[in-house]
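[Solved] Which block belongs to which protein?

Original post:
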Amino acid sequence: MGHKVYLTRDRRGLGLPGAKHLIKKAVRAALKAEGIDAPCQVSVLLTDDEGIHALNREFRRVDRATDVLSFPANELKAGHFDKSACEIDPKTGRVCLGDMALSLEHAVRQGEEFGHGTKRELQYLTVHSVLHLLGYDHVDEGEMKRQMREREKEIMALLEGVREQ
């Protein structure tokens, strides 16, 4: 039994070609890079700026759209995965890591803005969110942010070094 990524859209017709494959690949790469071999599950909501704005306002009290939101199911310490401290899905036996919401509009815009394209941006946002689900954070400019950015770079380098299959 491996990792499971549940993808949903908040409205019909919302999507990007290949997004499902790219997101699943990024989730699995992040979990592998973090040394997590316990079967895990992650839920991913694909949305637009309007949808993520509503979620951001409701759950974070921030009245603007953002690129990605992460909702960890457990209180984990970055770099120290402890399966015994996690919620387990009784039906699947997988560790429930949590949920993420991705704004596809933001991914397209940021991919263009940063010059690396939508596909890479979508994978970066996914890796970023998985790290949040695993206890990484960047609330200040200190050590935690540096550690998270370092892991993002390492995981993205692994992803970019893997040929499409």
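(Second protein starts here: sequence line, then its structure tokens.)
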Amino acid sequence: MKKYFDVLRRCSLFNHIEDENLIALLGCLDAKVEAFGKKYTIFAEGNPAKHIGIMLSGKAQVIRNDYNGNRSIVSGIEQAEMFGEAFACAELDAIPVAIIANEPCEVMFINCHRLMNSCTNACSFHQQIIFNLMKELAIKNLMFHQRIEITSQRSTRDKLMTYLLMQAKKNRKSSFTIPFNRQELADYLEVDRSGLSTEIGKLTKKGIISCSRNHFEIL
């Protein structure tokens, strides 16, 4: 497990956990590592939620499919990020989304029941990790509300500009790279790809934005 320490130190779940306590903590949480190929399903929609995942390498996406088979990208998962924590803490019988690897990746799985229930030794670092989990859940809740703000906009242009303005604010500059290609951005905004491309073209011609692949600048 020590070879993953550099990544785990960047994961919010392990904030303020000293290296000498990390090995013991991972054992306490029954941590296991699995590898997945590109397009493989890490968490399948409809499966029970028992584990929290941590992306050790590679990237994945949280995907939701509606009744008609339309795909929506809920969010992306980068290295050192945690995922599935809300579903596992809620002990859902059926996860409402799927988590798909969009490149080869390694994932650490943590037993949520062991995390939420302090071990018999009542370790201080176990209490710290529970605090870290609660903080991350609060942050993810804020991000969820931001996405609602984006997708609730009435037009494709309004959805796009709301998203781009949020990205500019997040990056603290008007020029930035987004984590989606054109189809993925359409899926995230829940709009038609051709309509999205049309709006990007119109906004570019009007001098409101400039765009090169997944790099945007708000002019």
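Accepted answer:
You had them paired correctly. Confirming on the second one: The chain has a mean pLDDT of 90.
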